[in-house]
């Protein structure tokens, strides 16, 4: 049996009041359409997935190129029925199609498979996935032939509901399976005599029933899974639902999350057992955290790897960095892309790092900028140390070898090499390489004038 999946993603999303197309809005760190494509490609290979694009088609396509799916262009968005009509050429050769909505992002592959199996077992022309959410307002309602029957008579859109129909709890999820030949034989019967003047795919239920075709419905096991995102408020609800699912999955794997409703954890995040995540932490992108770590409140970690036994104090910002085992960061550390923090190293408050490596057990505990630097192990970077890496035109590297002691308030003018075991006196501006085991001083000699202050005061 040949099966294709059509994803309707051409709409503007007028109700969002946004310049960005609806399906590119993100929940759980990924665009709506990415979630839907991900679920679809668990059921059929990407070359059997057809995404209908229209409003800002280029942007939508660009966001999901590389997934291997096909695109169909619906230049004018004349409704969901018209979206499927547009895909006719592309999918006519498949026996059956499953139609998904690009704005129903929580849908799980198991549910698509259940709809497919039900559709085939029922030998139906159209099978509708339904749900009974706590608030059905805004959705189309499914009118069954008789209470409890699999057969459907019609789908009625919210705006066309009679007062009596408004009490029907069962909604249309916007997800369907169709027998392709029958669908395309009758799809031209759709009319636009409705509130929006559009071709409604939902009207196919009535069209098919009128022609004596079998239309059936199956209720999803979870009504949350089929919730649609038409407004930014609904988007926030789905985002919260998705993140809570991610947090619960991590908790089931032994991760302690004190207040999961306050954390923002993307689906690609992995965390090892016995790690503790405090309230208001954000773990984004492909962040991987090991075992026995402690991530304190208000830290934001993106696309970074954190090994085991790492302590991240409050308010750290970590982006594309690698933190090795038993290191300690923060509070208020800022690790920019390319930072590699060695085992047992300490990066303290108001220390900024970028494109740098610091070795095992080294410490930069206070108020520093360390960029384009290679720092060995057992190094002490005094408070206020700055690598002057930029001359206004080019960036230059600083190399600090093992066991160097850099006194406080030192400026290291790159390119520069500080040899192993050497000392830099506090307050130095170092412009020349320092050999191993030397002491370098680069500051004005102190002048002290005895009794100056006393005589100064007596002049008042
Ligand atoms: C639709 C259903 C409604 C159902 C709800 C479930 C219709 C007429 N109504 O309503 O019964 O309860 O979904 O979420 O289908 N799209 C296109 N081309 C178009 C129009 C829409 O590709 O010309 C896409 C949109 O981008 C969107 C999807 O189709 O991803 C659904 O469209 P939307 O306007 O959100 O339909 P609803 O009003 O939510
Ligand atoms: Ca919708």
From TrEMBL:
Q: What does the record say about how the cofactor binds? A: Binds 1 Mg(2+) ion per subunit.
Binding site residues for acetyl-CoA = 383, 389-390, 408, 426, 443
Q: Where does UDP-N-acetyl-alpha-D-glucosamine bind?
A: 22, 74, 79-80, 101-103, 140, 157, 172, 230, 336, 354, 369, 380
Q: Predominant location of this chain?
A: cytoplasm
Which stretches of sequence are listed as region N-acetyltransferase? Answer: 254-460
Identify the Pfam families for this entry: Hexapep, NTP_transf_3
Question: In which compartments does the protein localize?
Answer: Cytoplasm
Name the segments for region: Linker: 233-253
One of the protein's GO biological processes:
regulation of cell shape
Ranges for the region named Pyrophosphorylase are 1-232
> Which molecular-function annotations from GO does this UniProt entry contain?
glucosamine-1-phosphate N-acetyltransferase activity; magnesium ion binding; UDP-N-acetylglucosamine diphosphorylase activity
Per the Swiss-Prot or TrEMBL record, the active site comprises 366
Sites binding Mg(2+) sit at 103, 230
Q: Name one GO cellular component term.
A: cytoplasm
Q: Whom does it interact with, and what assembly results?
A: Homotrimer.
Which HAMAP family does its entry note? GlmU
What's this protein's function? Catalyzes the last two sequential reactions in the de novo biosynthetic pathway for UDP-N-acetylglucosamine (UDP-GlcNAc). The C-terminal domain catalyzes the transfer of acetyl group from acetyl coenzyme A to glucosamine-1-phosphate (GlcN-1-P) to produce N-acetylglucosamine-1-phosphate (GlcNAc-1-P), which is converted into UDP-GlcNAc by the transfer of uridine 5-monophosphate (from uridine 5-triphosphate), a reaction catalyzed by the N-terminal domain.
Q: Which family is it part of? A: In the C-terminal section; belongs to the transferase hexapeptide repeat family. In the N-terminal section; belongs to the N-acetylglucosamine-1-phosphate uridyltransferase family.
Specify the protein name: Bifunctional protein GlmU
Q: Which organism is it from?
A: Alloacidobacterium dinghuense
What gene, per UniProt, encodes this protein?
glmU
């Amino acid at each position: 049996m040949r099966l294709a999946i059509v994803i309707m993603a051409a709409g503007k999303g007028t109700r969002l009041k946004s310049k960005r197309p609806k399906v590119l809005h993100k929940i759980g760190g990924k665009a709506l359409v990415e979630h839907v494509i991900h679920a679809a490609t668990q059921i059929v290979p990407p070359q059997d997935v057809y995404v209908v694009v229209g409003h800002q088609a280029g942007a939508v396509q660009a966001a999901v190129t590389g997934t291997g799916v096909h695109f169909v262009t619906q230049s004018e968005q004349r409704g969901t029925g018209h979206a499927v009509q547009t895909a006719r050429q592309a999918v006519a050769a498949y026996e059956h199609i499953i139609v998904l909505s690009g704005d129903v992002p929580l849908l799980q592959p198991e549910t698509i498979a259940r709809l497919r199996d039900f559709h085939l077992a029922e030998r139906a022309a159209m099978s509708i996935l339904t749900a009974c959410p706590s608030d059905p307002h805004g959705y189309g309602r499914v009118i069954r032939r008789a209470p409890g029957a699999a057969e459907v008579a019609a789908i009625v859109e919210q705006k066309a509901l009679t007062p009596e129909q408004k009490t029907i709890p069962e909604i249309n999820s916007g997800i369907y399976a169709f027998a392709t030949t029958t669908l395309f034989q009758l799809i031209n019967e759709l009319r636009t005599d409705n509130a929006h003047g559009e071709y409604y795919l939902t009207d196919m239920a009535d069209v098919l029933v009128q022609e004596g075709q079998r239309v059936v419905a199956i209720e999803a096991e979870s009504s949350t899974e089929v919730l649609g995102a038409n407004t930014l408020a609904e988007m926030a609800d789905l985002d919260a639902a998705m993140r809570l699912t991610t947090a619960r999955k991590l908790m089931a794997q032994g991760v302690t999350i004190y207040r999961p409703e306050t954390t923002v954890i993307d689906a690609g995040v992995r965390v090892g057992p016995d790690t503790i995540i405090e309230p208001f932490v954000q773990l984004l992108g492909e962040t991987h955290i090991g075992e026995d770590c402690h991530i304190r409140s208000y830290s934001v970690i993106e696309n970074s790897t954190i090994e085991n036994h790492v302590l991240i104090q409050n308010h750290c910002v970590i982006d594309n960095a690698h933190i090795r085992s038993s290191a300690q960061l923060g509070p208020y550390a800022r690790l920019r892309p390319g930072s590699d923090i060695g085992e047992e190293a300490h990066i303290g408050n108001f220390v900024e790092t970028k494109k740098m490596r610091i070795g095992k057990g080294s410490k930069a505990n206070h108020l520093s900028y360390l960029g384009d630097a290679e720092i060995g192990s057992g190094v002490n970077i005094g408070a206020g140390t700055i690598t002057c890496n930029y001359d206004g035109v080019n960036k230059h590297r600083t190399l600090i070898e093992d066991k160097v002691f850099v006194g406080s308030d030192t400026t290291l003018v790159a390119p520069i090499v500080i040899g192993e075991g050497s000392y830099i006196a506090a307050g130095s501006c170092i412009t020349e390489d320092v050999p191993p085991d030397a002491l370098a001083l680069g500051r004005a000699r102190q002048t002290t004038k005895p009794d100056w202050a006393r005589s100064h005061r007596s002049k008042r």
